[in-house]
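User: ok so my PI wants both of these folded by tonight, can you help

Assistant: No problem, let's get them done. Here's the first:
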Amino acid sequence: MKVKEVADLVGISVRTLHHYDEIGLLTPEDTTESGYRLYSQRNLSTLQQIFFFKELGFPLKKIKEIMESPGFNRNEALEVQRNMLLEKRKRMDAMITMIDKTIQDSKRELVMSEKEKFAGFDFSNNPYEQEARERWGDKAIDESNARINNMSKDEQKLLGKEFDAIYNKLAKLRNQSPESAEAQAAIEEWFVYLNKMGDYSLDVFKGLGQMYVDDERFTKNIDKYGAGLAEFMRDAMAVYADNKK
C-alpha cells in the first residue's frame, strides 16, 4: 500500500507517516523507483502496535526503544497492553458513573453524600513516590522524606529556591550538548541537590534520568521549564553517571 492509502485506511495524516519513517519508528517495506513508499502487512501490524502504545500514553521515542529491544515479543506486548487498557477502562467507568450521579445531583434527581462526590478520586498515594519505591526500593525515598520533614520551614523554602535555580539553569543549557562542561557542571549540582535529601547512587541517578522521559507525567512537569528539558537531563545524567564510575 502507498502512504496515502495507509493514511486513509487508519485515519492519520501522510505527514505523520513520513515523520514515523524519518525517526525510524516505522520504515516502509519498500520504495518504488519513483520514490513512493510501499507499506507491507508487517508494516501495518507494526503501526497497530504503535497506536496501542500511544493510546496508553507512551511517547514515540519510548515506543521505538521498546519495539527495537531484542527481547520484544509482539504477543506478550499485546497481553500487557490489553491488561493496561482494561485497568484504564475500569478507572474511566468509575469516573463516568460519578459524573452521571453528579449531574443527577445537580438536577436534584438524587442526593449525593459528600463522600460519594469524591468516591472516584484517590489522593492517598503519591504516584511519583510509589513508582520510585517500586523501581529503587524504600530506603532512598524514606531517607529523603525523613530529611525534608526534619527541616525547618525556612530550610524547606531555601531548598525549593535551590530546586528552581538548578532547573532554570539547566533549561538555559538544554540546547547544548549534554556532554558539555557547562551541562555537566549543572547536572552535578542536581546530583548534589538530590543527595541532600536521600542516598542517590550513580546508578539510581541515571535511572531517574531515564524515568524523566519514560514517564509522561515527569516529562510534562519538567518541560514546563523548557521544551525538551527532560530529554536533555536524561542524557546529561547518563553521561555524568558513566563518567563518574
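One down. Here's the second:
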Amino acid sequence: MHSNIKAASSNYTNLVDIGIGIVSGGLGGVVFWLTVLPLGVAKTLIQTNPDKNCSRNPFRILSSIYQKAGFKGCYTGLGPTVSRAFPANAATIVAWELALKMLGIKHD
C-alpha cells in the first residue's frame, strides 16, 4: 500500500501514513475477529454455563451451536465485534506508527 500511494502524494506523507494505518489496522482487526469469533462464542458459552459438568471442549460446543443454529449461530455478536474492532485496531496501528516516528525508529 505504502509504495503505491507514497509516490503520488509526496506533499502529504503524514496524512498518507495515517490513512494507511487506519485502513490496514482496521481491516486487520476485522479479519482477525472474523477468523476467531466462533471460538470466542464457544468460550463465552463455556464461561457462562452454570452447569459445571458440561463439556469444556470448544470444538464440541461449536458443533452443538452449528447443529442448532447453523453457521449464523457461530457468529453471534458479529456486528458489535466488528464495529469495535475496526476503530480500535486502526487507532492501535496509527499510535504504533506515530510512536516509531517520534522515537526515530525506521522500519521498512
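Residues 9 and 95 are 22 Å apart (CA to CA). The chain has one domain: 2-103. Good luck tonight!
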